[in-house]
Amino acid sequence: EKGGYEHFMLKEIYEQPRSIYDCMRGRIYPLEGKVQLGGIKEYTEKFKNAQRIIIVACGTSWHAGLVGEYLIEEYARIPVEVEYASEFRYRNPIINENDIVIAISQSGETADTMAAIEMAKEKGATIFGICNVVGASIPRLSHAGIYTHAGPEIGVASTKAFTAQVTALTLMAFYMAETKGTIAKSKLIGLLSELERIPKLVEKALQSDQYILSIAEKFKDVRNALFLGRGSGFPVALEGALKLKEISYIHAEGYPAAEMKHGPIALIDEEMPVIVIATKNSSYEKVISNIQEVKARKGVVIAIVTEGDTEVTKMADYSIEIPHTDEAFLPLIATIPLQLLSYHIAVLRGSNVDQPRNLAKSVTVE
Ligand code: F6R
């Protein structure tokens, strides 16, 4: 049932070209520049008039929410707040009938996320669910929503569910942008054609597996790791750090690269790898200065770079290439090497990667 893979996690990492495709199948029409989301169609007016969107989730799903914030604000120009469901539910949040709450959950059963939407619903908000498990509690509690269609995720550490959530949020952002008229048709046509290529690009990113294994062998005994990124690379850094800590039990932190100098820079030495999302996009030059700051303190840099990069490659100790894509889709590709890195480090350390200690696949108690 693991399809020849040693662990479910590895199988699920490798399933991503397929699961991302399944999430967008029948929903995008690149030639016409159209996105069709049957699940939320009757709420089109609601999105058109939305003053703000609140995204609630936990863990990896919360990281997907941060990517969603970036996409929805960029393309649909609707203000977005991303909240930990557990914090949101115990505040006295200001919510009204014009608010849209998007709950993201792989399992659709996470207790805190459920309680958060129950509260928001009581206050009159419209609730959308982005879930993987069909017919779970969160989809049933929501007014509408879309399924991620990633297929069953068995490994406790979320991998293909995350990239499917990001895909679903991308579709929603484009859908809202299209209905609100905040995106030019030609631009949307270009983006959707690129989105259609993403499964192929993910496949390409997976080809670095052996090289990533060789990096994992060098770093398997470290005690700490720092992950840095800017823009939508920041949630990718958070997700990379979470993956590493939950399955390898190495302490890891994700930070916006520019925040490093406000504290974490004190940790940098020859022992601690700093994993940097340093792809060619709008923050490239800024990230290069952040890498220089790390190198000036004798830090070890593992960089995720765009294929063909020479500038970062010169400075970094190790560079993992990923194919170039539009900045909108960077998280879908840049996450792949980080999943593989955590997986290999965890296996080399002898952890039970599919069932890490103290963790459950579905957190139904708060
Ligand atoms: C991390 C992980 C958890 C879940 C979190 C939310 O790999 O799996 O952080 O993302 O417990 O779960 P769902 O998405 O089922 O609500």
Automatic annotation (TrEMBL):
Its EC number is 2.6.1.16. The active site is at residue 361. It is found in: Cytoplasm. It is an enzyme of class 2 (transferase). GO terms for cellular component: cytosol. GO terms for biological process: amino sugar biosynthetic process; carbohydrate metabolic process; fructose 6-phosphate metabolic process; protein N-linked glycosylation; UDP-N-acetylglucosamine metabolic process. The keyword Repeat applies. Its main location: cytoplasm. The keyword Iron does not apply. Residues 43-187, 215-356 form the SIS domain. Keywords: Aminotransferase, Cytoplasm, Glutamine amidotransferase, Repeat, Transferase. It catalyses: D-fructose 6-phosphate + L-glutamine = D-glucosamine 6-phosphate + L-glutamate. GO terms for molecular function: carbohydrate derivative binding; glutamine-fructose-6-phosphate transaminase (isomerizing) activity. Catalyzes the first step in hexosamine metabolism, converting fructose-6P into glucosamine-6P using glutamine as a nitrogen source. Homodimer. This is Glutamine--fructose-6-phosphate aminotransferase [isomerizing].
